[in-house]
């Protein structure tokens, strides 16, 4: 982190799973707990987060008065009311970083009385262990400096990419919701392993170890997924038999339909 980032007071309006994941990531960098504030209306959740990370829970008005960077990390359906409440009380140059799925920067800017810079972000939950993917897009008033600061703050949580905002709904379908697809597939592998006679413990270790190793191989080998799949698939072998079932059941179509549904839902949330 550069000096500018280290000097910022950073607020989180909403401290759910994703907000907490980002807080954890920031604290794993050079950002200190006394730089981070939350405004969480659920008192039980607020107590949990303040205790876990040694951060302070403030009112919305206190957050806007104190913070130069504010993460909008509430549920999409709650964002409008939050924006109406904080509009007019923000610092002039306060940067708003929104992680509310589907909500455009234009939507946010339209509810503010000021021309604060807005950066839209689609993160994902592996951010909490520094292995996340965050995709950012600039709003109308966001400068290169605002984007650079956003990238810097998010870099401790994993990979940060920039796209045109029109692509954010597709990003949501791929990486935003992607971890759940992965977890669902692992669940199915474990269940099938048990049905085939393995203990749940062994099936779990085999499934997780295989997935982790395969992901690392894909990332580190420089070889594309299709080639790696072909390399492990011997003609008329066991892998070929399994992949033939995937083909007959039209796995590609299932995945495309699922991701299209995720994109559509993101658009509906706008």
Written description of the protein model:
The protein is an alpha/beta fold. The chain folds into 2 domains: 3-169, Rossmann fold (3-Layer(aba) Sandwich); 178-268, ProC C-terminal domain-like fold. The protein has 13 helices and 8 strands. An 8-stranded mixed beta sheet has the order 3-2-1-4-5-6-7-8, sandwiched between helices. Helix 5 (76-86) links the parallel strand 4 and strand 5. The longest helix is centred in the C-terminal third of the chain and has 22 residues, at 200-221.
| H-E order | HEHEHEHEHEHEEHEHHHHHH
Helix content: 40-55%
How far the N terminus sits from the C terminus, by CA atoms, comes to 33 Å
Radius of gyration: 21 Å
Main beta sheet strand tally, sense and closure: 8 strands, mixed
* Total strands: 8
Mean pLDDT: 95
Q: What is the CATH class of the largest domain?
A: Alpha Beta
* Structural class designation: alpha/beta
Brief characterization of the structure:
This protein has 270 residues and is an alpha/beta fold.
Task: Describe how the helices and strands are arranged.
Blueprint: H1 3-6, E1 10-13, H2 17-27, E2 36-39, H3 43-53, E3 56-57, H4 60-66, E4 69-72, H5 76-86, E5 95-98, H6 105-110, E6 118-122, E7 132-138, H7 144-154, E8 158-162, H8 168-176, H9 178-195, H10 200-221, H11 225-231, H12 238-248, H13 251-268
Parallel strand pairs: 1-2, 1-4, 2-3, 4-5, 5-6, 7-8
Antiparallel strand pairs: 6-7
Helix pairs in contact: 8-13, 9-10
């Amino acid at each position: 982190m550069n000096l500018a980032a280290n000097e910022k007071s950073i607020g989180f309006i909403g401290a759910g799973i994703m907000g907490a994941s980002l807080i954890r990531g920031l604290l794993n960098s050079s950002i200190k707990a006394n730089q981070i504030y939350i405004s969480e209306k659920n008192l039980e959740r607020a107590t949990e987060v303040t205790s876990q990370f040694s951060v302070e829970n403030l009112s919305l008005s206190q957050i806007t008065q104190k913070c130069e960077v504010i993460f909008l990390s509430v549920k999409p359906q709650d964002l409008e009311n939050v924006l109406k409440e904080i509009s007019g009380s923000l610092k002039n140059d306060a940067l708003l970083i929104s992680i509310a799925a589907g909500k455009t920067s234009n939507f946010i800017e339209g509810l503010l009385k000021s021309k604060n810079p807005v950066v839209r972000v689609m993160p994902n939950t592996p951010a909490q262990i520094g292995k996340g993917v965050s995709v950012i897009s600039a709003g109308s008033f966001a400068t290169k400096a605002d984007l650079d600061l956003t990238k810097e703050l998010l870099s401790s949580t994993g990979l940060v990419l920039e796209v045109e905002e029109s692509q954010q709904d597709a990003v949501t379908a791929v990486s935003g919701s992607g971890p759940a697809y992965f977890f669902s597939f692992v669940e199915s592998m474990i269940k099938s392993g048990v049905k085939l006679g393995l203990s749940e413990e062994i099936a779990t270790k085999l499934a997780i170890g295989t997935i982790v190793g395969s992901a690392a191989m894909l990332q580190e080998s420089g070889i594309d997924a299709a080639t790696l799949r072909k390399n492990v698939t011997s003609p008329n072998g066991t892998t070929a038999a399994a992949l033939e079932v995937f083909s007959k059941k039209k796995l590609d179509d299932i995945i495309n339909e699922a991701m299209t549904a995720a994109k559509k839902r993101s658009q509906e949330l706008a």
